[in-house]
User: Which sequence fits this backbone?
């Protein structure tokens, strides 16, 4: 998928009535959060490329929330993976204290997290109902989860 200047709107993502939570986890917004989420992904998903892609997307989204949300270590992030009939929806909700919205950076010296997400995910986006929820949709081949 080519880099997006503007991510898809969250309204574009429809959660299927058959969707089920594979992971719903609250973690403190600190440097341990990415490794805790990676461990949860490893425990919830079978091996293979889908687990590796989900693990990388999860780690990037959580790392961005820790780095840019402005939340302190006493505040919580909600991490979630929902299984739909043909995809996984991976999301992180943070308090968005700093007011920074998720976007692809064009800085060659860094900012690769959402570029990685953009390459792996079918689509991704952010919504701002109460803080910020950044999500990515990962296609799931039949029998991979």
Assistant:
């Amino acid at each position: 998928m080519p880099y997006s200047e503007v991510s898809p709107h969250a309204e574009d993502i429809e959660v299927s009535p058959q969707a089920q939570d594979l992971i719903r986890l609250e973690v403190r917004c600190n440097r341990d959060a990415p490794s805790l989420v990676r461990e949860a992904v490893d425990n919830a998903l079978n091996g293979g490329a889908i687990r590796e892609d989900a693990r990388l997307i999860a780690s990037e989204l959580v790392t961005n929330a820790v780095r840019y949300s402005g939340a302190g270590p006493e505040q919580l992030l909600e991490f979630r993976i929902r299984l739909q009939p043909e995809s996984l929806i991976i999301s992180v909700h943070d308090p968005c204290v700093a007011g920074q919205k998720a976007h692809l950076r064009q800085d060659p010296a860094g900012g690769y997290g959402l570029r990685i997400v953009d390459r792996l995910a079918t689509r991704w986006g952010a919504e701002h109902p109460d803080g910020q929820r950044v999500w990515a949709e990962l296609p799931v081949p039949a029998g991979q989860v």
Summary: DSSP finds three helices and five strands in the chain. Residues 40 and 114 are 21 Å apart (CA to CA).
